[in-house]
Amino acid sequence: MKFKTVYCIFLLLFSGGVILAQNVDIPAKIDSHSFDPAALIWLNKPAAKWSDAIPVGNGRLGAMVYGDAADETIQLNEDTYWTGGPYSTVVKGGYKYLPMVRDLVFRGRFKEAQTLFGRKLMGYPVEQQKYQSLANLVFHFESTKSVTGYKRWLDLETGIAGVSYNSGGVTYKREVFSSYPDQIIAVRLTASKPGSISFTANLRGVRNQQHSDYATDYFKMDGLGNNGLVLTGKSADYLGVAGKLRYEARLKAIPEGGRVFVNGTDLVVENADAITLYFAAATNFVNYKDISADEHTRVNDYLEGIAAKSYESIKASYLADYRNLFNRVNLKLPVTANSWAPTDERLASNTITPDPELAALAYQFGRYVLISSSRPGTQAANLQGIWNNDMNPSWDSKYTTNINLQMNYWPVESANLSECAAPLIGLMKNITDQGSQVAKENYNCRGWVSHQNTDLWMVAAPMDGPTWGTFTTGGAWLCNALWDHYLYTGDKKYLRDIYPVIKGSVDFFMDFLVTDPEKKWLVTNPSSSPENFTGSPGNEPYFDETTGSIVPGTTICAGSSIDMQIITDLFANYSKAAAVLGLDGDYITKVNATKNRLRPQLIGKDGTLQEWTEDWGQLEKEHRHVSPLYGLYPGNVFSVKQTPGFIDAIKTTLNKRGDGTSGWSRVWKTALWARLRDGDRANSIMKGYFKDETFVQLFAKCSGAMQIDGTMGITAAITEMLVQSNHGVIDLLPALPTEWDTGEFKGVRTTAAFELDIKWQHNKLLSVKILSGQGQTCHLFAAEKFQITQNGKKIKMEKLKDGSVQFPTTKGSVYELTAIRNG
């Protein structure tokens, strides 16, 4: 063994990193069906539009690769390039009007309450800032004529996007990746015949052509020496907020053979054997209130950092970093003949021809997107991750915190990517700044609050008008994700660090909750159920003066079900966190007493779980949000075993909402049916999502626009079908679809810091390996009888009344569960 180890190290050291950076002939693998259909997205035509391009990213720098043979476009982003600059939306003195708003709500005068909230408690500006497109790298290959054998792909095993085609008897290949270690994007072009690569390239800025509220931004394109291009500019003013971000983007070409030169703003390459382009970019952003960095120095440092490195060494370093994350988890589901088809064809036909492995591909693509858009030191992944080609993107490509940002991070722990949660944790720390000011000025409360949206500048006041602005539990919902990070890692140092954030949210709601004058329950007021117009008596369209538009009705209420469920989880998680750290014992008692007074969950006359305190109907049929079911997933208020009395009402609610609407909505419903232990229903909804609500590379759609929330959420939903651990019990194969009769799931994480390798055959559990990360008691349930061993020795289990078992573990030890078959 020692000889083999030394020999492998010798090969690695003296091959220039070839073992890590070896070239893989993806087109040959596609033609021979020798690739892994759960790890390769491929298509046989270039992207006709931006939303069908292939993404690469390192958390900070993103690119969308179109893959056209003759006229290639690579659209580029940097995660801190937004409109505006540091600003505040806090409006002082709103709390003076809060009692009037509450009184109007309790008296059923909802239109007046919503109007008063809009006039006196909205943040200013009412809207927020926008994520911006940085640049486009555009190539023209004049000699490219007829093309045959075209393929483009994203290899999830390497995170590299590729293009291959034949033209004029020459095979051309391109590969693109975004390196986290070196903070650059690399574009490599090769050809099968020396001297065959010639093109002209431009690095082009992007200007908004649609929105009249923008002041003039600027950018300047120029050549740089004889082998580079540079683009400099600043962010736009928006809504009276001065654009204070400066950026610099540079392109550097390293040819092999041939000639490269700059002609004005054109990079010209003639008759090269191969060429590598390196793209680096930065802004002057330091944090949400500091823009004192030097973007030129930053870009210079990035390029100087790779100046002495070969392409192979840069690629090897990139691959080592990427694979350290991606290779932790592997999911295998049944492969069918359709699994080898181009990805767009797989998506279109999966509802007719079973292709279970498509779900495995979607699972891994979600992990890839999370790795590519959220890394330590970067910003949190926004609505589009880090990929946006529009200066006026849908929903501003912000952080929408009434489902979308939360869904982006649903899989981060179970998918064994805990490090990728760091940007979300950082966002939560930062938003408490203005969040505490809004708590004081709007509501006269301690702690901090955040509503349904924020942006790069961490504003926290209600925004977009009172129809959306009365959702006060967006930050509390995210606090529950902070607690999950502790549950999955057992990291007490982290918990001490984040404890003030969770406690600050608890402080706010301890002050904000008020007594319902009729029922004497504690409720939130004002409140709303995200984006849903209440079925309150007489609710009808009216003119919202804050936004200057007609809205379908009022949303304001007291004690929406989602509010009560989020706060129930928040108070429960806080009490557990304080107990773990041995802090605030008296306050725990007060918090638990308050939790017991919260408005209970109610079942309406139509058999659904009530969305509001009152038993109101729905103005909109099959509304896309399923907010009253937060407590089933991702929350922990309901479960099949612990709250059976609510399960029929939850199913009735889901059936009334339907299986359709937007991508993220279908994904949420997939996860909810998984929590209800109905794998076939979950699988059916997921198939509809693949067919109707994804682009060809598996990015999710929302009203036709690209968003990553569904992409992330489907990864989490697939996990819920195979493993659940939300109530401290590891539930094995709880919602296994009939079609997924055989499979393996290796490296999945659960609460209590366990890592599992699961195998099943004929829809029954076969074996499980359990790695104990923190030495906690393992509490698990499986439908089959099984035995547990460690190093071949049987482990004694304690059997509980509900059919589950538990046993002690030692940190770092591996335990094997084997199903016992009769006969």
TrEMBL record:
Xref: InterPro entries: 6-hairpin_glycosidase_sf, 6hp_glycosidase-like_sf, AFCA-like_C, Alpha-L-fucosidase, GH95_cat, GH95_N_dom, Glyco_hydro_b
Key words of the record: Signal
Signal peptide (UniProt feature, chain positions): 1-20
TM annotation in the entry: none
Domain named Glycosyl hydrolase family 95 N-terminal: residues: 41-287
Domain Glycosyl hydrolase family 95 catalytic, residue spans: 310-722
GO biological process assignments: carbohydrate metabolic process
Recorded GO MF terms: alpha-L-fucosidase activity
Location of the Alpha fucosidase A-like C-terminal domain: 724-817
Keyword tRNA processing: no
Statement: the UniProt record of this protein carries the keyword Magnesium: no
UniProt xrefs under Pfam families: Glyco_hyd_65N_2, Glyco_hydro_95_C, Glyco_hydro_95_cat
This protein's name: Alpha-L-fucosidase
Origin species: Mucilaginibacter xinganensis
Taxonomic lineage from the root: Bacteria, Pseudomonadati, Bacteroidota, Sphingobacteriia, Sphingobacteriales
